[in-house]
Design brief:
The chain has 347 residues and is of the alpha+beta class. The chain contains seven helices and 19 strands. Keywords: Aminotransferase, Methyltransferase, Transferase.
């Protein structure tokens, strides 16, 4: 077990380890309990327009029944958190921020909310169970839950007469779903889902596999690829910014940075030899000059090689060879654009 955002979370489950759990998701199906994630509901007249004026992405691009990746930024463009916003209508938006930042996101929204709009912290009202992998549809079908929604779509459903929101979202790069039952129903739904997962040669999965899966995809993790010092422009998530919107937190700073060009950018690193990459390692160019730092790193079970995400000087380009200092040894790495493996979220 490990502390994660103030929650005690399993790094792995008994009976196989991180690599086996990782491969289960890539080849069959995995089940994750990620109920530590925050849940913040914003409702009241004009709630969607209010949220849109705060978060970076453009809620006007989606319709009710759709979800959207977005960012909560400071006025200087730093990232307080990244989150998923589920649009329920003009007067209601449900958001899922990271566990460690949920309280601050809620407070920032609450402090800016106009009269008639309320911001509710529903962290312990809902659980989040993620069913991820090629066999995910089979698991949901066996549970009597709806399948077939487009990526980032969601629907209100029921399981054994109890409400559950079924979302076509995930953090693994595979086709999958995230289920939001009531907190008190989560244990029973977990048991039923795990039975179906195991029937398809799948596994219960912990934070270890979640991290290796997201790193293979190049997905940002707040506190690593996104921080108050690493902006969306630097992290290459400018696609989650509604540049044409008249207002959102950090707009002026981000527009200025995009116009000037960032001084550093996020890249992937693929190890050219044996060695495990981790966060916080120095990266040097072919002349021995420090050009950046790794922000995440792991051994990729899919590729059988070390992979990392790194924040590098703007002069670094794709296919450059760099050296990462791994315990005093220079490990050669090629600069690449993630993902490291095929994206099958829309499969």
């Amino acid at each position: 077990m490990a502390d994660f955002g103030g929650w005690s979370m399993p790094l792995e489950h008994a009976g196989g380890g991180v690599v086996a759990e990782h491969r289960a998701v890539r080849e069959a199906v995995g089940l994750f309990d990620v109920s530590h994630l925050g849940k913040v509901r914003v409702r009241g007249r004009g709630a969607a327009a209010f949220v849109d004026s705060c978060l970076t992405n453009d809620l006007g691009r989606i319709a009710p029944g759709r979800a959207q990746y977005s960012l909560c930024c400071t006025e200087d463009g730093g990232v307080v958190d990244d989150l998923i916003a589920y649009l329920r209508g003009d007067d209601e938006v449900f958001t899922v921020p990271n566990a460690a930042n949920a309280g601050e996101v809620a407070e920032r929204l609450r402090g800016a909310a106009p009269e008639g709009v309320e911001v509710l912290d529903e962290h312990r009202d809902h659980a989040v169970l993620a069913v991820q992998g090629p066999e995910a549809d089979g698991v949901l079908h066996a549970l009597g839950l709806p399948v077939g929604a487009d990526y980032m779509g969601w629907v209100d459903a029921s399981w054994r007469g109890r409400p559950v929101v079924v979302c076509r979202t995930g953090y693994t790069g595979e086709r999958g779903y995230e289920l939001l039952p009531r907190w008190e129903d989560a244990g029973e739904l977990w048991d039923a889902a795990l039975e179906q997962v195991r029937a398809r040669d799948g596994r219960a999965c912990g934070l270890g596999a979640r991290d290796t899966l997201r790193t293979e995809m190049g997905y940002a993790l707040h506190g690593h690829e996104l921080t108050r010092d690493i902006t969306p422009v630097q992290a290459r998530v400018g696609w989650a910014v509604g540049w044409g919107k008249p207002a959102f937190w950090g707009r002026d700073a981000l527009l200025a940075e995009r116009e000037a060009g960032p001084a550093r950018r996020s890249w992937g690193l693929l190890a050219q030899g044996r060695g495990v990459l981790r966060a916080g390692l120095a990266v040097e160019d072919s002349d021995g000059r420090r050009v950046g730092t790794t922000t995440s790193g792991t051994f990729s079970p899919t590729l059988g090689a070390g992979v990392a995400l790194a924040l590098l000087d703007a002069a670094v380009e794709r296919d450059d060879l760099v050296a990462v200092d791994v315990r005093g040894r220079a490990l050669a790495c090629r600069v690449v654009r993630p993902p490291f493996v095929p994206d099958r979220t829309r499969a």
